[in-house]
Amino acid sequence: MRVAILSPEAVPFAKVGGLADVSSALTKALHAESVDSLLILPLYDQIDRSGLKLFDDELGAFWRGRAARVRVWQSDELVAPAYFVEAPRYFNRGKIYGDADDHERFAFFCRAAIALARKLDKPLDVLHCNDWQTGFASVEMKRLRRHDQFFAPTKILFSIHNLAYQGLFDPQDLWWLGFSDEKNVFMSNGAASALKAGAMSADALSTVSPRYAREIQTPEQGYGLDWLMRARSDRLAGIANGVDYEVWNPETDPHIAANFSADDLSGKLECKLDLLRRFGLPQEPERPIIAIISRLVAQKGYDLIRDAARGILDTGAFFIALGAGAKEYEDFLQSWHDVAPHRVGIYKGFAGEPLAHQIEAGADLFLMPSLYEPCGLNQMYSMRYGTVPVVRATGGLDDTVQNFDSTTGSGNGLKFGPYSAPAMLEKIREGLYFYNQAEVWKTIQQNGMTTDISWSAAARKYIQLYNEMPGPQ
Ligand code: ADP
User: Fold this and answer.
1) 473: pLDDT confidence band, cut at 50, 70 and 90?
2) What separation in Å is there between the alpha carbon of 359 and the centre of ligand 1?
3) Residues with beta carbon inside 6 Å of ligand 1?
4) Which residues does residue 324 pair with via DSSP β-bridges, in sequence order?
5) 337 lies in which domain range?
6) Is the domain of 392 the same as that of 375?
7) Measured in angstroms, how far is the CA atom of residue 177 from the centroid of ligand 1?
8) 81, 213, 281, 333, 353 from 370: Cα distances, Å
9) pLDDT digit string (tens) for 91-108?
10) Residue 352 confidence (pLDDT)
């Protein structure tokens, strides 16, 4: 089975959020399950080109009324091939997203990606699109396969990693982007939506956890498309992401101060001291560290953290935050650090992977009080590193974390329900109560470290979906 995964980001090449981890891990995990998987990405200027080889010097992609010549590069770093579409005009921007012409940039990427798929030796069995940036490819493939025998067997899966980002743009642009025939599938509340068009055109939909698949069918979390999610609910699967054990493994992780395992957690102390040092905090290892790594957006629950800031300090814990995003939250983190420089450590900006690993390894509790969370990855990375996640019961957080029950000793984390600062604080205090009982704490840590959250289980669910989903009608 040949599957092309189209994504706007993938580690180690280009990353903004969890989609980058997922795109690469799924490509690799499918390959390990004997699927002929391949990944297609834009060639952003930030990507290191030294490991790439030229795959095609003159791919022809129909664009704005003429055949554009595009260069395609290849990397074998993921074992399965990753292809990169070069277009300096669109992808040499010093950033991945955030320009007014993002819809044009990714429409071009999709055109070129399909032209690339057309040139491969064998047709695709599945075109697997991810998020709004690839919605144009879903539309294009549906159109092409009607009359192009090469694509006649190709099924289209559209995966939603976050329904809140829909790629909205002025419908007048559909004309020169070459999608005027599909205007109806794009139109959503007066705007053109790349996500809606992608979801409408696909043979099946998936999202990144079972609970989020149910939540996006409700008006509260449907972002205006709940009707579509309900209408397509028989073709909407929820498959939770996994963890790439090659990348996130405390036994082998090269980025952390000392390696450790579920059987021997002793190295975690060294990681904790190293983390305190990195954030300029006093070497007081008996004091617990609560950490967070996330984009600084309302979705991640920063309003709760701001409301509970005083109460968090009153618990006596350190707080370490790594995040980039909205200025109001960056300002809050800065002022919190300024009032308690010996207790609050912050890094504002997008750090390289090593710091995220060092935080996971050195912290004791990992906080994810999300308003909503399609899947979430850091709660799973935390479990792997014996760092107990404290999460709100929403989306994938609810599916992947089981609340610890002190009477039975089962559970791999701590979970609270209401989206409120007092509920979050109460759960943090409960966590710290367990932290102070060394044996109980070790049980929660080990429960997390031994939970099977490998990608291979998730990849097998995708393969089943690829096989069972309906094809072209
Ligand atoms: P989302 O995709 O909504 O951002 P996820 O929890 O699914 O959230 O994934 C976030 C990923 O991005 C994690 O791998 C996390 O470690 C990483 N990350 C988020 N913010 C930063 C940052 N400022 N620096 C480095 N890594 C970050």
Assistant:
1) confident
2) 12
3) 17-19, 21, 293-295, 322-324, 350-351, 356, 375-378
4) 295
5) 267-452
6) yes
7) 32
8) 35, 17, 26, 17, 22
9) 999 999 999 999 999 999
10) 85
